[in-house]
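Exercise 7b. Backbone tokens:
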């Protein structure tokens, strides 16, 4: 072997993350052409785009790079491949382009697109010509397929589905509600391998001269993440039990699910994804792969850091004694962010009192905290995991409430607001408003929804590091004597996290000092994967939400300082200053102050808001100033920010 070849072989391939190979991208049709930029390299790597109208009864559309743009198939139909010159018109290194076809871009209609990029141990696309005899088809999945979907393209035929949870003599039909059937002529009674899959003589998979496309999904094959060992796709099964709370353990949090009842009578193929909404204690959005019908809403599934839970008893998801198969794809991003702009942004605007699409976040937000600047109104907090419309206020003990015309959807680059006539907190006509947008990401921020327990219990999370700052709120009021406010726990308190005794803690909804309350919240210290909580404060009949922040080099800093009463520089390790700063005094009373660069962190006066108050923005004060490495506290700052000898915690984001 030459020196060049040895050197080439010794160089490891760069790590691959799920966000590199899969995307759920939502868009609104315009009756014309559109370019969809989802960050997936289709022209260079190849793959499949699956498009479905959400608001109308339109057919599913499958277009892949192996058959080329404009060539479509419909999973709700047996029809042969169609050429749609105004359908999906081209693939690019960052997504794809569509034309004005009604199934892709009806004006004002809403759509979702699921993009699967070819990648070993995730997904592959193969085309072949049938022989009419038992044969094998080569593939490049690099692992044993967990599921294979085959469609004949030259004439009408059913969609054939192989799934590893079935016998190799069984098959499913994607365009049908039928249960699993037996037929040795479909897969030639042969289990696929890491290099080939087998087809028999049935015309749906191998008619002589027929043309076919196959989509192959891996199963728990590793290949992803920094170490190259993480799984991102699972093709598994579970038993229905007819009772809410049936948990399916994947070992990671899913963002996309395809579920099929294989034994219990007729049932459609059900598609969920977290961009359209898989929420807890609220309605989930779902579509049927075998039907052209519009999107449906019902509370059926919830997700957590290690899997998904069936919250219903119906035969489509969780019928008693029924068996189910699924394909699940892991939630991203998996990659640790390196710049603050990829995970945080503030948007300042004026309320319209009418439906408004707010863009400019720079990412799809998972958490939006809004506050009127020029009028006394409670802060309004929304997150994707609890679902749009469901509001909490950081300054009250009040349970979450549904506001039908407040934040009505989380979008790809921001969110959509309604007229907001019921609450007036996020889009009040003529008022100035600030919206702080956050994205869940490893090492930076995570959101965890959980239910209480009658005994000590653990709550998994996906922060991937030990959290430094934790906010916990009971979501739903029931008959329970426990605390209704906002717990705040931090490693930056004096003594750090405390477990098993009196807990050093703050309350987001008050200005009280730390150390209030005698009962502990933590059973043991937080870890990089879970919170261990005591049941005394988390009654089993209640639901809770937790927001977890961490220090991430160059992106965020959870820290503490001792006041001096004079100018004080806070080094956060940034290079271009903090764009968001939150400060709270811990040894005495003090409000929760927030500044941001959208409203001004400048050398002059800086406006601030309080998270524990409905008060309007305070202007005309100069309490903090810019600093390249973080932020500077001025000598004019009051005791709540810089008393000599006072102790404080802060959260800063670059």
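Sequence design result:
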């Amino acid at each position: 072997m030459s020196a060049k070849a040895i050197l080439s072989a010794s160089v490891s391939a760069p790590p691959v993350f799920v966000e590199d190979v899969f995307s759920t991208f939502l868009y609104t049709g315009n009756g014309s052409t559109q370019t969809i930029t989802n960050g997936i390299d289709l022209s260079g790597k190849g793959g499949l785009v699956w498009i479905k109208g959400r608001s109308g009864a339109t057919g599913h559309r499958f277009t892949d790079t192996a058959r080329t743009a404009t060539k479509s198939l419909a999973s709700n139909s047996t029809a042969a491949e169609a050429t749609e010159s105004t359908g999906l018109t081209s693939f690019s290194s960052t997504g794809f382009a569509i034309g004005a076809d009604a199934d892709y871009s009806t004006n004002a209609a809403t759509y979702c697109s699921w993009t699967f990029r070819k990648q070993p141990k995730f997904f592959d696309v193969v085309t072949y010509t049938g022989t009419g005899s038992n044969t094998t088809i080569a593939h490049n999945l690099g692992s044993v397929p967990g599921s294979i979907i085959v469609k004949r393209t030259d004439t009408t035929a059913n969609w054939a589905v192989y799934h590893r949870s079935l016998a190799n003599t069984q098959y499913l039909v994607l365009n049908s509600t039928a249960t699993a059937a037996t037929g040795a002529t479909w897969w030639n009674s042969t289990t696929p391998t890491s290099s080939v899959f087998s087809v028999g003589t049935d015309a749906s998979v191998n008619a002589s001269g027929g043309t076919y496309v196959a989509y192959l999904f891996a199963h728990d094959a590793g290949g992803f993440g920094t170490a190259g060992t993480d799984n991102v796709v699972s093709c598994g099964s579970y038993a229905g039990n007819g009772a809410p709370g049936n948990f399916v353990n994947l070992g990671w949090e899913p963002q996309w699910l395809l579920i099929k009842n294989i034994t219990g009578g007729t049932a459609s193929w059900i598609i969920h994804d977290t961009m359209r909404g898989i929420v807890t204690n609220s309605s989930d959005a779902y579509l049927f792969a075998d039907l052209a019908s519009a999107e449906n809403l019902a509370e059926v599934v919830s997700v957590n850091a290690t899997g998904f839970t069936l919250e219903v008893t119906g035969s489509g998801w969780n019928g008693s004694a029924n068996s189910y198969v699924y394909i699940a794809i892991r939630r991203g991003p998996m990659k640790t962010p390196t710049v603050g702009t990829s995970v945080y942004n503030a948007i300042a605007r004026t309320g319209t009192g009418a439906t408004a699409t707010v863009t400019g976040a720079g990412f799809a937000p998972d958490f939006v905290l809004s506050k009127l600047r020029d009028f006394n109104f409670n802060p309004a907090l929304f997150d994707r995991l609890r679902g749009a419309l469901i509001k909490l206020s950081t300054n009250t003990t009040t349970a979450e409430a549904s506001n039908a015309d407040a934040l009505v959807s989380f979008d790809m680059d921001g969110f959509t607001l309604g007229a907001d006539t019921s609450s007036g907190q996020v889009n009040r006509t003529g008022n100035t408003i600030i919206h702080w947008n956050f994205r869940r990401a490893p090492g930076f921020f995570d959101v965890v929804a959980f239910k209480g327990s009658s005994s000590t219990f653990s709550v998994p999370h996906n922060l991937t590091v030990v959290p430094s700052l934790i906010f916990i709120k009971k979501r739903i009021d029931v008959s329970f004597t426990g605390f209704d406010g906002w717990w705040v726990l931090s490693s930056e308190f004096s003594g750090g996290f405390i477990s098993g005794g009196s807990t050093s803690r703050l309350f987001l909804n008050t200005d009280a000092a730390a150390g209030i309350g005698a009962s502990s919240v933590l059973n043991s210290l937080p870890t990089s994967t879970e919170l261990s909580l005591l049941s005394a404060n988390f009654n089993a009949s209640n639901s809770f939400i937790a927001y977890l922040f961490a220090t991430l080099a160059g992106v965020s800093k959870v820290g503490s300082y001792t006041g001096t009463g004079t100018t004080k520089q806070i080094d956060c390790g940034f290079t271009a200053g903090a764009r968001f700063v939150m400060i709270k005094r811990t040894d005495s009373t003090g409000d929760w102050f927030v500044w941001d660069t959208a409203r001004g962190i400048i050398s002059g006066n800086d406006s601030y808001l309080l998270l524990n108050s409905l008060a309007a923005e305070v202007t005309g004060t100069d309490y903090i100033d810019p600093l390249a490495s973080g932020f500077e506290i001025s000598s004019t700052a009051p005791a709540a920010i810089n008393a000599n000898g006072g102790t404080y915690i802060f959260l800063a984001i670059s």
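Instructor comment: The chain has seven helices and 51 strands. Confidence is low (pLDDT under 50) at residues 5-10.
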